[in-house]
Prior knowledge:
By secondary structure, this protein is α/β, with parallel strands linked by helices. The protein is built from 5 helices and 4 strands.
Amino acid sequence: MITHLPVMAGEVLEVLNARTGGVYVDATLGLGGHAEEILKRIGPEGRLIGIDRDEEALRMARDRLSDRRVIFIKGNFSRLKALLAEAGINKADGLLFDFGVSMLQFKDMSRGFSFSS
């Protein structure tokens, strides 16, 4: 398992301003580092929608975030409105898009990002 520590998590969460009971979307869920921090702030009534197009990353995020408050969606954020509608979500209190590259992508050369191959 690749350990994932989100970059600038404190700054991201400060700007996102996640609050108890809110509905938040992590549109680039990846391994769930930012999502894990959001869950700490939204309380038992909050909801988190995690979207990723990468099935492997989504599986790993499911393992990490095993929580009834999370809705996991396989899809591309370019279809955000449709994906949320399909999940019955018609509004969100905050959206997060992290356009960085993760170690999961770098460590597996078959993903096309390897420094060593």
